[in-house]
């Protein structure tokens, strides 16, 4: 297990959700809100097209932080996020993070999920236990 | 317009969810998580779990349904057409494994107005069949133009 120090950049996670990912995530999560799976419905309510589930993007933030902790699903103790820009299918999501604090086996990581110039999750704070 | 805040402090009926291996597999696959502890019983047991273990964010699968009736409660009176999911926090404790029975209880923490937006903050707490807390969640929904 690597040592973590305040200010360290953590490894990036890059994922490009395919066109049908929102359908699979809807099935997996039980959230069938049509803004996520129906482009025509989404456009009718003023969105550019169907958008990713915010909790899917948050799931990627959780995945990145769990990987950072060595993969043990028990390691992630807390995750707090704010949803901002809309996430779109078929565009690469880049999850990046910076260690904010590290002591006594507890590491706090500031995490951001972006698509191009758009931050879709910001002010994400993850607390992992090593 | 003044926001209706009657629901602050209200608790709703608990919702029970039975955790299964195939659902954990489906969730982990959608998120691109490939750790065998989410797919293979032997790998999970070797790692010290009772059975196939859920990724932390699987929380949305068992605690999300408890919020359905809350969002539609006339006492909450939330304008769905203008609602966005503004923020989310989870604090995890006991891991959730296949075979667990998770009971989730929702509560309204706060309803307030700020910068012309309505903030609706709900909490869910989830416990397993042994009475151990598995997660506490805070869900913040924002309604534009109240």
What's the short story on this structure?
Chain A is of the alpha+beta class and 130 residues long.
Topology:
The complex is a heterodimer of chains A (130) and B (146).
Chain A: E1 9-15, H1 21-29, H2 34-37, H3 39-44, H4 54-68, E2 76-83, E3 93-103, E4 106-115, E5 118-129
Antiparallel strand pairs in A: 1-3, 2-5, 3-4, 4-5
Chain B: E1 15-18, H1 21-30, H2 41-46, H3 59-71, E2 83-92, E3 101-114, E4 117-127, E5 133-143
Antiparallel strand pairs in B: 1-3, 2-5, 3-4, 4-5
Can you walk me through this structure?
The complex is a heterodimer of chains A (130) and B (146). With 130 residues, chain A is of the alpha+beta class. Chain A has a single domain (9-129), classed as Hotdog Thioesterase (Thiol Ester Dehydrase, Chain A, Roll), CATH 3.10.129. In chain A, 26% of the residues lie in helices and 37% in strands. Chain A is elongated and about 50 Å long. Chain B is of the alpha+beta class and 146 residues long. Chain B has a domain at 58-143: Hotdog Thioesterase (Thiol Ester Dehydrase, Chain A). In chain B, 20% of the residues lie in helices and 34% in strands. Chain B has three helices and five strands; from the N terminus they run E-H-H-H-E-E-E-E. A five-stranded antiparallel sheet of chain B has the order 1-3-4-5-2. In chain B, a hairpin with a 2-residue loop joins strand 3 (101-114) and strand 4. The relative contact order of chain B is 0.23. The chains are: A alpha+beta (130), B alpha+beta (146). The A-B interface holds A 15, 21, 24-25, 27-31, 45, 54-56, 58-60, 62-63, 66, 71-74, 76-83 and B 23, 26-27, 29-33, 35, 37-38, 47, 53-57, 60-61, 64-65, 81, 84-92, 95. Strand 2 (76-83) of chain A pairs antiparallel with strand 2 of chain B.
